[in-house]
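Predict the 3D structure for this chain.
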Amino acid sequence: HVQLVESGGGSVQTGGSLRLSCVASGDTIGRYCMGWFRQIPDKEREGVAGIESDGSTSYADSVKGRFTSSRDNDKQILYLQMNNLKCDDTAVYYCLAGVNSWGQGTQVTVS
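Done. Predicted structure below.
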């Protein structure tokens, strides 16, 4: 079972950038599909980006062209580079490994 810890969240002005990291332990992430999700109060968690074990990626329409997900399997880290941030990007961001291994989340606030 893999454990995940996100970091890199914070407060930023519109148009700014942040890079989130998700450090994994307990299992090798190389075999996992991984992803980034986000959630705001009273709303369902929504998918932001997915990244396969081979590095191929997919993105929600709302973040295409602004967010980039990458992974370093050797270092056991998943990244989410977020550029040109908008107020609507404000949320708690979570990483996921496989289908049910979640991190604790990191808050991103854009104002």
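The two ends are 37 Å apart (CA to CA).
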